[in-house]
Amino acid sequence: MHYYITNNTSTEAVAIKDIPEVEYATLYNDLKERLKQEQYHVAHYFATPDENRLMFYIVLLDDKEHQIMLARFAMEYYDDIALPSLTALHPALHPFEREITELYNVHFGSMPWDKPLRFAEARRNRNSTIDNYPFYTIEGESLHEVNVGPIHAGIIEPGAFRFICNGEKVLHLEIALGYQHRGVESEFTSTNNRLRQTLLAESIAGDSAIAHTSAFAAAIERLSDNAISDSLATERIVALELERMAMHIADTGALSMDVGYQLGQVACEALRTMTINTTQAWCGNRFGKGLIRPCGTNKPLTKEKVEMILSNVEQISRRYAEVSDDIQSSPTLLSRFEHCGIVPQNEMQRIGGVGMAARASGLLRDIRSSHPWGAYNTEPRHDSCTMHDGDVMSRLKVRCEEVQQSAQRIKSLLEGYTTSEKHLRPDYECNLKPSHLSFGLIEGWRGEICHVALTDDKGQISTYKIKEPSLHNWLALALAVRGEGISDFPICNKSFNLSYCGHDL
Predict the structure, then answer these.
(1) Please, are residues 253 and 267 in contact by the beta-carbon 8 Å criterion?
(2) Beta strand spans in 51-86 (E)
């Protein structure tokens, strides 16, 4: 089968007419075999109206050859012929097919899990609500259900968790998300104001503002033929790695709190505060809002800020190493974290797991390695941290190693860094190429983020699709708690720390 092939270093968008339009049967047969290989996985797969047809686009990643492969197919908008389900062969595709069914009433024959993905405001079946969601059930006199939600008590976001337990042992967990009707993707197409679109990108998931805005900026810069300078690309990676450090340290503290290790909790809270305060001293916002802008920046690094970042990062790295050593040498903590919440590598691959959670199970999914951009594309190449047990401890160890790796990356980029006086200001008026597809592919701290933008014949964004890593990893959490005591759910949950709002698009 023929794909349009590009890579993550390309600065050009792709003309839609150049993306091969194939028959679904051809695509199905190709993916049926190709996705059996670990080197391939789907970054995005979605449908969008195209005049009197429904056009499907797929973004396939070849992690071995560092290629991004694009293809599309079409069906008549009211065609009720069932398409053979790829999910039946490769469960990793379940969120994509479920969304397509929910939004456009496309039927996938033999689809094993045809349930609503988000209860999107634009869903075809208006009678489908969280109140009548078809939760899975198991019959048995010794079984009972435990319901959590529909509003999460800690972060006040919508999430319904239904456990089926035999005594204290969890047999099954089903998670229903996405009924706040945020409508983020449609907001991108409802305005031509580039600044407003940038602010929307910052709000997709507040703890990943830098990662999501970097993906948005990359998509816009490709569409407008604006290749950013090496210095700006370097500064974006520094910001991204600061975000990674802050969130991994925060999660280390959260895990410490859940097992009553107060010293680890307090120490990590202090270090996380120091990390986000470093970002605030750079751009005026602790979460990096205002820092990433398309085609330029309003917050270029200065010599004084470089020195401040290097000094703070060195101190954070040193102090965090002490905390992580204490955690990994404590018999009490090890007894709670080891062999708890296991997701084996083969299961993580089947469900399409990404990011640090996948790497903790031995599955190497890391855009910085497989599809590098900017400084990740130069020597020394990024060497991903992996573990193999797939338990809570492995996910914590990946965090611990990635904090130190991020600190070293920031140090290598900024030591001897010469600030530029020629930084371009953001361009909110740039013209976008008409009838083109563009993407932004970034490794956020949770994992793979993919933004895809399509323009119409006037150069306006007509479709904007976002994939947050939590889309795949929520199912990993559900698998992780099977066979565990329900009292271990909090530490399993925090070992993933998935996004509710990032899923509710």
Answers:
(1) yes
(2) 53-62, 67-76, 83-84
**Residue 122 binned pLDDT confidence (cut-offs 50, 70, 90):** confident
CA distance 158 to 178: 7
pLDDT band at 378 (very low <50, low <70, confident <90, very high): confident
469 preceded by a cis bond (ω within 30 of 0): no
Give the SS3 label for residue 325.
Answer: helix
DSSP assignment of 449-501, as one string?
EEEEEEE-TTS-EEEEEEE-THHHHHHHHHHHTTTSBGGGHHHHHHHH---ST
pLDDT reading at 180 higher than 80:
no
**Strand, coil or helix: 434:** coil
**Higher pLDDT, residue 177 or 269:** 269
Q: At 254, list the tokens.
A: 């959260």
Quote the mean pLDDT of the chain: 93
DSSP state of 21: B
Least Cα distance to 90 among 112, 115, 107, 109 occurs for: 112
- Determine the residue type at 500: Y
Structural tokens at position 252: 């280390």
Residue in this structure with the two tokens 């090890």, named with its chain if needed: 334
Q: Give the domains, in start order, of the chain with CATH numbers.
A: 4-132 (3.30.460), 133-178+469-505 (3.30.390), 227-420 (1.10.645.10)
Query: Which candidate, 289, 63, 92, 102, places its Cα nearest to that of 181?
Result: 102
State residue 283's pLDDT score: 97
Cα-based distances in Å from 97 to 35, 42, 108, 251: 16, 12, 8, 32
